[in-house]
Design brief:
This protein has five helices and six strands. By secondary structure, it is of the alpha/beta class. The radius of gyration is 14 Å and the shape is globular.
């Protein structure tokens, strides 16, 4: 056991977070996301929501300080909308960084996800519960 590591962070995910470098991106996906056809480095965490997973990960890594939008969400397809509670949870977990969220069109999100270091599949059942996080530098 390690002290200070959130219980929902598995050993495999902890290794991935440690291996990532500054500027690497990780996708935190909902349960609907085509993770296995997008990325070869997939970890499943089915018992957690995507905002909950993002919150746990941000206890261990910094957001990229050198980009405007280190957190990217999938933009809803016209006619769809993001669940307001889902968006509120994401913003709440980001705190002061909530204004640094960007949005990417659905297919552009998939293309960007193909370049991600890894995809973490959550049990998030709400649509558009997909988040890309860009890792920053841990400053002293």
């Amino acid at each position: 056991m390690l002290k200070g590591v959130p219980g929902i962070i598995s050993p495999d995910l902890l290794k991935i977070l440690a291996q990532m470098g500054h500027g690497d991106e990780i996708v935190i996906s909902d349960a609907h996301f085509p993770a296995y056809s997008i990325c070869s480095n997939v970890v499943r965490c089915d018992a957690v929501t995507s905002p909950g997973m993002m919150d746990a990960m941000l206890k261990l890594i910094e957001l990229d300080q050198y980009v405007d939008n280190p957190v990217m969400l999938m933009e809803p397809v016209p006619g769809d909308q993001v669940d307001p509670e889902l968006l509120a949870e994401i913003k709440n977990h980001l705190g002061k960084d909530a204004d640094r969220i960007g949005y990417i069109e659905r297919f552009a999100f998939y293309e960007r996800a193909k370049k991600a270091f890894a995809v973490v599949v959550t049990g998030e059942s709400r649509i558009y519960g997909n988040i890309i996080v860009k890792k920053g530098v841990t400053l002293p």
